[in-house]
Specification:
Layout: H1 3-12, H2 27-65, H3 70-105, E1 116-123, E2 126-131, E3 140-143, E4 145-149, E5 154-160, E6 165-169, E7 173-178, E8 184-188, E9 194-200, E10 212-218, H4 220-231, H5 240-251, H6 254-257, E11 281-282, E12 287-288, H7 291-299, H8 301-304, H9 317-328
This protein binds dinuclear copper ion (CUA).
Dinuclear copper ion binds at residues 122, 125, 165, 200, 202-204, 208, 211.
Length: 331
Amino acid sequence: MTRSLIAALLLQAPRYHRQSALDSAGPRAAAVETLWWLMLTVATIVIVLVVATLAHGAFRRRAAAEDPAGQAMDRRLTRWVVTSVAITLLIQVGFLVANYAVGRAIAAPRRDQTALLVDIIGHQWWWEVRYQDSLPSNLVTTANEVHVPVGRPVILRMTSRDVIHSFFAPNLFGKKDLVPGRTTQTWFQADTPGVYRGQCAEFCGHQHAKMAFFIVAEPPPEFARWLDAQRQAAPPPSDTLQQRGQLAFMAGGCALCHAINGTPAGGRVGPDLTHLKSRLTIAAGTLSNTRGNLGGWVVDPQRIKPGTYMPSNSLAPADLRALLAYLESLK
Ligand code: CUA
């Protein structure tokens, strides 16, 4: 490993959180995590007591058989069983109350804060992400990455274009299905800045396993800057190589499926590429967003993600270089 790569990893490391429901980063996941720990603690105490009692009974049996006062033993046994059943019932009722309280607490965000509304549309096998605005020119469409401001509730309004998917970021919220022809809703709030990995949690075909996404939680000013940058149209090609790349994009069929704001490309089948280079990964969390990976993906996506709807592309080497130069300019 080169020194620069190590440095880059160390610099990036604090931003990335381990994907785990036991490392909650917001009120919603925290409530569920607390409930989980409560249940684990009580269940552990119960199993230890049960095993201890069982061991105790096993060692006492021989002594008891020689005990002439059998009736006193029977009464004690009945008392034990009744007490144990009562304790079990109490624990179950306690869990029920705790469960209900957590369910109520996470049903909706607190009303004193205005929530950010984000639309998520499931596709085989990627996520379309849209930020609504009363001004149509301020609409933002991106893919596989949801940027949010820390400390503010986010409402996710979701649907699917094909089959049922499920949106799940364990550090922030539980699973919620995306159902074709229906709108479902969930919410979360990230209190710790950073990058959280999430993934599709409902089997949805060939590449279900390669349908990940990232929640990027940023301080509000940074989020505002990101949103503003996403609202801009793509910059025009800045040199002849990029110009050639843009031509290859428009003529090669890419534009039939992908949109680039500020160009005639308006396809809606695949991810919007207006700010492709600003994203962390390509192919829904499958590859890091580097030039080499992008080249491999454009030429032979079927090898990387068999069954994906993106076809392979046989481009002349010079055209591929130009296309990559253009795609890399979409920051
Ligand atoms: Cu989408 Cu599994």
